[in-house]
Amino acid sequence: MSTRFPATTAHADADAETTRAVVGEFLAARLAGDTGRLVALFADEVDWLLADNPAVPWIRPRSTAVECAAQFTELMEHTVPEDARASVDTFLVDGKDAVLMGHLSGTVRATGRSFQGPFALRLTVEGGRITRHHLYENSLSIAEACAAP
Prior knowledge:
By secondary structure, this protein is of the alpha+beta class. The protein has 4 helices and 5 strands; from the N terminus they run ααβαββββα. It has a 5-stranded mixed beta sheet.
């Protein structure tokens, strides 16, 4: 006997399909540096979580689509684009939620110092737009790279 409920499963499958597609578009827009597309992908109001770090100029509270998309531009202004690396090792989707885990690294332009470490990113997609962006990363390594040697 099956314990699956067809209506619920079909809805969850549709949510997961939409989530996977939107997150794929998000990653492609980030890679291309397409802030206009990023603005369109973020909801008008976003539950943004990235631990405040006063030593890091691109890490600050955000809540609107424009502010969230601007994080990419600010990151590129303060780091050396040629040295930026990010790899996604895990991409999990459960209905409206996605979790990406991987590794990132880069170099801060002002100091020439590098940072690196693992990350986890939780995204929630509702109505075809990203409503939650919670990023967990090695903030100590990034802060140290921003500090003058």
